[in-house]
Amino acid sequence: GGGESAPTVTEYAGSGIRTRYDLKDVDGTLVQASDVKFIVSPVMQDGQGLPEPRTGDTIVFGGTTYNIVSCHPWQYDGDVFVGFTVQGRA
Fold it and tell me: Is the pLDDT of residue 78 over 80?
């Protein structure tokens, strides 16, 4: 009793692209100069649905681990769900 339990780690093999934020979007607080934006597919590499990424989760991309700062569903024309927009911070 009284001890802390280790966090549960679940890995998902997904896909997406990594981009930089436009300078106009960097405010130094909510979006920092080193933050990156991911567009993440809602489908994992094995064809199953990807659980929605959440603040506090991590993404490993190109050998770098990013902490998820925010995540928003991404819809094309506000109608068709195509994935997630994720803000990452190394």
Answer: no
Contact 16, 38 (CB under 8 A): yes
Choice between 6 and 67, residue whose per-residue pLDDT is larger: 67
Kindly report the pTM of this predicted structure.
Answer: 0.85
Strand partners, 59: 66
Q: Identify the sign of the CA torsion 19, 62, 59, 17.
A: positive
Note the pLDDT of residue 27.
96
| Nearest to 16, CA basis, from 37, 41, 36 | 41
Calculate ∠ Cα 32-82-74, nearest 5°: 35
- Pairwise CA distance, residues 66 & 73, whole Å: 18
